[in-house]
Write a structure and sequence with these properties.
The structure is a homodimer. In chain A, α1 links the parallel β1 and β2. The first copy, chain A, has about 290 residues and is of the alpha/beta class. Chain A folds into two domains: about 170 residues, NAD(P)-binding Rossmann-like Domain (Rossmann fold); about 110 residues, 6-phosphogluconate dehydrogenase C-terminal like domain (6-phosphogluconate dehydrogenase C-terminal fold, Orthogonal Bundle), CATH 1.10.3660.10.
């Protein structure tokens, strides 16, 4: 049905669109470990282009999409999700037959839906590496970002096994652990373990900010507990905005479940129920300790 | 009205009741920097006593409260808050005239209230160092725990200036930054920057746990964002239980304010209000970045 993908990773010319934290780190990892033939970057700002070359993160960099996509065996869209959705139709038009079109967006259902409309001669596959930092941009990029991290791949029904295989090979080449799953399942799970923590961090900072307007000493007393719990509130706004807006129902569901848990804890506190509260807190502690031991 | 406190820190014999993370670290800091004459510890378990001596955190350690308090110029209660409240009457009976009775409890209003009932011949002052880790117990103790950290002191009206001075000198001797404030003000501020983050972390872990019962992959996808936001859920349960139960109204108020912020964010997501959401998230990001730069 589609043109088979014949390129091996070793022969592949890879174009990464967007050299921020994720794209810049991916480019850097490919250059450092050189599993492929050529790494090209597409950026909007000349300054970013200059920096990417100076840091040796790419073989070539351009501010123009067309030539960099046209010559690629694999195009990886590493921008915020809503920009990925805008870029996909253009990339579909520009890409040569057999080209694998992948992305690194934080939500997958909307991206996979948009990938359905790509021309039959390209091979789409969604991707989302489970790593990140609250810092963003090329300055924050580091070639080891993917090392040991789960990297979700969401193939479409039309995605050929060779294209998926190439994506898996790419993930492993940068140190990641490929995990194939359906887009909707991915989006639900990340709403709970990524988007919810982000919103809680924002709610926490908003609360402290409001309280600080009457008593600024709140910032003086804030220690490592506040720092860690609020860390995600410093995430890149465009990335998180796109993430939330392309995963609205699931984000709201996750927040609603969390609200039930918080109200249950609030009731135990309100009633001074030492035994019930102790049991609930102990269960949370044991669950958290099992995770990160 | 009270017997004047004549002892200088250099001459002081200090008894720390409870050698967990906070008490053990304080003892270790005093032994390492030796600003005082003698450091004595009181613990419940013989094994803890043995370990404290083996690590050189104390000059002397006992499982009996009476002799260790009776010979002290300064007694520091370093247990969870409800144990502090239980111990205070006994310590008042045992302490010699002029003895400074301090604590390291996470909430201050209940402690200061209980300190009002101490005999007139002792000098009470509340204390709360703004540091900690999610690990607990003597094993986690480290002499540098207080270095550079704000250390709140909540004197009572009856607290003499010499006793408060001795407490400040002690804080500075272990590297802390003394900050005198009223107990109620402290309790409100920590409900926002310490107890609220703890509850949010617990709500997050509870949500993930519930979701994991249908799809265990939620733990596989959890990355550094989840890890940091949920870290406080691993805090010592007895300490946090006592903290929440002795600061109920303020904890519930902080949670209610946070809920308003979370619902506001949820509404922006629900309505797909990209502009409003972007403004809200940008404000949170800027506020967070100003804090920890």
């Amino acid at each position: 049905m589609t043109t088979p993908q014949a390129t091996t990773l070793r022969e592949a010319r890879i174009t990464i669109v967007g050299l921020g934290l994720m794209g810049g780190s991916l480019a850097g990892a490919l250059k450092a470990r050189h599993p492929c033939q050529h790494v090209s970057g597409v950026v909007r700002q000349r300054e970013t282009a200059r920096l990417a070359l100076a840091r040796g993160l790419v073989d070539q960099v351009s501010t123009e999409l067309a030539p960099a996509v046209a010559e690629a065996d694999m195009v990886i869209l590493a921008t915020p999700v809503r920009t990925i959705l805008e870029l996909l139709p253009q990339v579909g038009q520009l890409a040569r037959p057999g080209c694998v079109v992948m992305d690194l967006g934080s939500t997958k259902a909307a991206v996979v839906q948009a990938m359905l409309a790509l021309p039959a001669h390209v091979q789409p596959v969604g991707g989302h590496p489970m790593c990140g930092k609250e810092t963003s941009g090329l300055d924050a990029a580091e070639p080891d970002l993917y090392q040991g991290r789960v990297f979700v791949l969401t193939p479409l029904q039309r995605t050929g096994s060779e294209a998926l295989g190439l994506a898996e090979e790419l993930v492993e080449a940068v140190g990641g652990r490929p995990l194939v799953m359906e887009a909707a399942r991915h989006d639900w799970l990340v709403s709970v373990i990524s988007h919810l923590p982000y919103l809680l961090a924002c709610g926490l900072v908003g609360t402290a900010e409001q309280v600080s307007q009457r008593d600024d000493a709140v910032w003086t007393l804030a220690a490592s507990g506040f720092r860690d719990t609020s860390r995600l509130a410093a995430s890149d706004v465009t990335m998180m905005l796109d993430t939330l807006l392309t995963n609205r129902d699931m984000v709201l569901d996750a927040l609603a479940i969390c609200d039930v848990h918080l109200q249950r804890l609030a009731n135990l506190v309100r009633n001074g129920d030492a035994e019930g509260l102790s049991m609930a807190l102990t269960a949370m502690r044991e669950r958290r300790e099992r995770m990160f031991r």
